[in-house]
Structure of MYP0 protein:
Amino acid sequence: MSQGAGGSGRRLLLLAGLLSALGLSPTSSIHVYTHREVHGTVGSHVTLSCSFWSSEWISEDISITWHFQAEGSRDSISIFHYAKGQPYIDDVGTFKERMEWVGNPRRKDGSIVIHNLDYTDNGTFTCDVKNPP
């Protein structure tokens, strides 16, 4: 982290990872796209973009899960899950009441927004998309 001009702009580096969920055969894979790095300022918000492409139609059973691995940690935790047409935001933990679902699976978008950024938000975020037949 570095300070901006005048020491007032504290910056965060959030790494957005990607994870492709493979189907039963190589021709039915999902390609997931995220930004490699996302920067934010302490107290502000960032959008973690997650778009995906599949040669198959988007089923009603599509699921999208965001995981977070804190900087320096070996453990990853689930912080968001979308399934059966409903978003499920973690109601405990560090992202409680700071996360917003802005995605739309019909538009092949699984993006989230994290509000009120904190230093503890530094780490790797992974978007996992599954589109079962």
Q: What stands out?
A: DSSP finds no helices and eleven strands in the chain. The chain has one domain: 30-130. The longest strand covers residues 11-19. Confidence is low (pLDDT under 50) at residues 1-9, 16-27.
